[in-house]
Amino acid sequence: MIFSEIYSLYYKAVSRILALSVEGKLTEKDLYAISRENAFPESAMTIVPALRNKEWPLLADDLHTPLERAPRLPLSTLEKRWLKAVLSDPRVSLFAPEMKGLEEIEPLFDLQDIVCFDRYRDGDPFTNERYRARFRTIWKALKEKKLLHLEFISGKGNTVSGTCLPLKLEYSDTDDKFRLLALKEGEIRTINLGRITRTEIGNPAPDSAIPDEPSPKRNAVFIITDERNALQRVLMQFSHYKKEAEKLDKKHVKVTLTYDQDEEIDLTIQLLSFGRFIEVLSPDSIRKNIRERIEKQIQFFNN
Predict the structure, then answer these.
(1) How far is the C-alpha of 259 from the C-alpha of 240, rounded, in Å?
(2) First CA to last CA distance, the chain
(3) Phi and psi dihedrals of 258, rounded to 5?
(4) Per residue in 288-299, pLDDT tens?
(5) Does 175 score more than 80 pLDDT?
(6) How far is CA 165 from CA 75, 161, 182, 188, 210, in A?
(7) For residues 259 and 218, is the Cβ–Cβ distance under 8 A?
(8) Full-prediction pTM beyond 0.70?
(9) Measured at the alpha carbon of residue 132, what is the angle toward residues 129 and 135, in degrees to the nearest 5?
């Protein structure tokens, strides 16, 4: 099963434990550390006892394993079909993923069958070869920590050029666009990739120029009223964010979500899309933004 604990996170954690044991390097401390890092924070309370009391007969008392080689899990046909479908996404293909071994596999689903009702239709041209070439140049500069010479069209229609230090690539699900966060003249700029017309990799960036954190982290706290499957929809919508959920009662869940400060507007729009099923407690900046947007909508309909 693709989303089974045992065959995904649990298997990953145990396989790494056994791989270390095969090398003769496994310690008691590693058991807990690997379980927490590769599964869930509380998984060590399940995985370690199961290995130590021989419920899973894979480790001896001295932490050695009878296995001669590190375990490997071959992909099932279902997993290969799911992987082929995901890798067929033009956004994923921008990163040039490895497709070897999937040539004869039929995708599990057709991406054209998925319709997004809350997404703008003027997304980036992900299949355009010039766009793809510029994307990969930016991606390479990011990975190699090199300066980037670029030219782009500003929001006012002016052509801007210069050298910057790329910090991070972001994707907006609402806008269906990639954005580049870059350090230029001491300020962090956000540039839509669709507006970039030319890219060229420069020299390696000096260590002193690389900030520790491209964007300050903030926490958003909100309460979900679990009606009309709201809880599941919210957790799926914000699956790429770090978050903690606390059940308050049968119908209400408190969520603390960590986000980059420069993502706040996009996050606000996503929260608004859930209407009355979400009550934002903090920060005040998001509450204020939501209030202003609702007031504008009311004025629009009253005029």
Answers:
(1) 10
(2) 54
(3) -100, 130
(4) 999 998 898 888
(5) yes
(6) 39, 13, 5, 9, 8
(7) yes
(8) no
(9) 155
